[in-house]
């Protein structure tokens, strides 16, 4: 039953999978989406456990992490420099995925997810995964604050006051 539901959802994908490595039917599309989603789940779970090795194993070697601060556009090496000391203390960060939209096309997948965080509230994660040698890896992850439109002006004012926006 679950496979049928996943297949039906995969068939609703706005971009059909094409190319030599593309799944050939709805079941295969659903399996690809499930495997890509599992990579994101492993990343979140490893971060919550403070397991840096498992966390970074979910990323491609040339991945980018774009954080909430405008200065946080990091290569994987730069992100290691930030995160490794945190993980070394046995700590991490916990984002609880609330909902996720994920689309696959051949060896590429893109996603956006709504996340809950105890201190920061609602955030959004988005990015791209690529299947390399049969394994899904995160190529880019973007973490952003979800600012309600009716509060956006106040947030921009705070950023301007800090001298970080025009």
TrEMBL record:
One Pfam family matching this protein: SnoaL_3
InterPro entries linked to this entry: NTF2-like_dom_sf, SnoaL-like
UniProt feature coiled coil, ranges: none
Membrane spanning stretches: none
SnoaL-like domain: residues covered: 38-148
Record's keyword annotation contains Signal: yes
Secretion signal span: 1-17
Keywords: Signal
Name by which UniProt lists this protein: Nuclear transport factor 2 family protein
Species of provenance: Brevundimonas albigilva
